[in-house]
Structure formats: C-alpha cells, structure tokens
C-alpha cells in the first residue's frame, strides 16, 4: 500500500473531500496529490466549498477555479450565515 492510498483511505473514512495547504492550494479526492512534491507534507484534510461560500473568494484570494471545479478545498467548513 502506498502513502497516497493510505491518505485516500483515511480521507474517505473521515468524510473529508480532499487536502489543502493553508489557502495556497488544494486537491479533491478524485485528483489527490497531483503536485507530487515536497509541499505535500504541509497539507491537511479539508472540505470542498463553493467559491461563493469561500471567505477568500470575497477578497480575491481564493485559488479555486470557478470555471472547472466551482470551488476549493479549505481546512474548515465556512460558517453558514
């Protein structure tokens, strides 16, 4: 079993949607660890949120891609207003 498989199994068991690294980057379970570089060691489990729910989107800091994924992965779910 690879590290990627172990992480994937854990994320699914704990009901996370992917990984994120602060708000610099994120990857969803269906495309886990595409970067395959040293920054992976700083990633943490996260939840997918729509860009309109992302606190960084409102300040033009969101790294999500509304044209494709429609959101990003954050370490915490945003609080509903």
Distance between the termini: 42 Å
The dominant shape is globular
Total strands: the figure is 4
How much is the radius of gyration in Å? 12 Å
Helix coverage percent? 10-25%
The proportion of strand residues reads 15-25%
Describe the structure.
- By secondary structure, the chain is α+β, with helices and mostly antiparallel strands.
- The protein has one domain.
- The chain contains one helix and four strands, in the order αββββ.
- The protein has one helix at residues 3-13; strands at residues 18-21, 25-28, 44-50, 71-74.
- The chain has a four-stranded antiparallel sheet, with no helix packed on it.
- Strand 1 and strand 2 (25-28) form a beta hairpin.
- The N and C termini lie far apart (42 Å).
- The model has no long low-confidence stretch (mean pLDDT 78).
